Amino acid sequence: MKLSHLGVAIVALLAATGCTWQDHATDFNGLTDHDGHKVSHMNQYMLGLNLLITQPLYHDSTMETNTALLTAEAKAAGANGVRIVQSDESTWWWVFFPFSLIITPVSSNVAADFVHGG
């Protein structure tokens, strides 16, 4: 029975892995940044798998990749300034121990404010 629960958990992990979730906020009720420029806020969460804890295997979810994707999307939307307000990178080696020492779930989160027209 315990093995079937592990199997279900692994299938669920693989189904969710490789995902990127984003939240956008653009309605600041007419408020601007301290220089009077329009701002927007974006939060991005990525989930992937690493090999042997450190090497990206499926969906590179490193902080570097997450930040690059987030800022590229903001730039494409017309932003010309950024301020990272929160970031986090987690390696979930303990979740399915000892299996997860070989195939390790990883996640990263970056939240940023973007300036438009500054």
Number of domains: 1
Task: Please report which band the strand proportion falls in: under 5%, 5-15%, 15-25%, 25-35%, 35-45% or over 45%.
Answer: 35-45%
Query: Radius of gyration over alpha carbons?
Result: 18 Å
Give the distance, in angstroms, between the N- and C-terminal Cα atoms: 59 Å
Number of strands: 5
Question: Roughly what is the average pLDDT, rounded to an integer?
Answer: 85
Number of helices: 2
Give a description of the structure.
With 118 residues, the chain is α+β, with helices and mostly antiparallel strands. The chain has one domain. The protein contains two helices and five strands; from the N terminus they run αβββαββ. Strands 1, 2, 3, 4 and 5 form a five-stranded antiparallel β-sheet that branches. The mean pLDDT is 85.
